[in-house]
Amino acid sequence: MRTLGPGSIASVLKIALDVAYVVMILVTGLLLLLWVASIFIPLDNLNVTVSDGADGREMPLSRPLLLFGLGALTAYFSGFLLILRYLRKIFRTLTLGDPFQPDNVRRLRQIGLILAVVTGGVWIVQGLVAARLAPGVMEPQGISDLLTPVFSVLVVFVLAEVFREGARLRRESELTI
């Protein structure tokens, strides 16, 4: 089976990305609706248990806590929705058999930036939760927990440069007689 062009592995992956994109739109939309609804729903006598394994800490569920949690979750899924959006556009060019387009360089850079923001946001939010919401129950993440995500972000930026070089070479070859 071919890797690029119509009927290729790239086209199958494009279909999978399309399905994931629709699912992510639905999940993000539902979370956004829950966030808006949480402004109005009564929270009398509701508790939340925060745990990191066997032990846990029960505390009352306040509106700011609920809004913060749903907002953070919505932002997390929104970031990945944007990443899927750009990946779909990249895979569309792969399906057409024309991957080295300048737009793909921009898209890969945007994916890297969004991935960096999501990674940093998760790290900060987990640190806040560990320090403020569940001190002694949850451990804050350390710098070592960022190694794999930072490596992934760097790989995306390197791929963007590979695509930039490919687009440059393609442009040069088009000018050659």
TrEMBL record:
InterPro entries: DUF2975. The chain crosses the membrane at residues 21-41, 61-84, 111-134, 146-163. This is DUF2975 domain-containing protein. Keywords: Membrane, Transmembrane, Transmembrane helix. It comes from the Bacteria. Coiled coil: none annotated. It comes from Brevundimonas naejangsanensis. Signal peptide: none annotated.
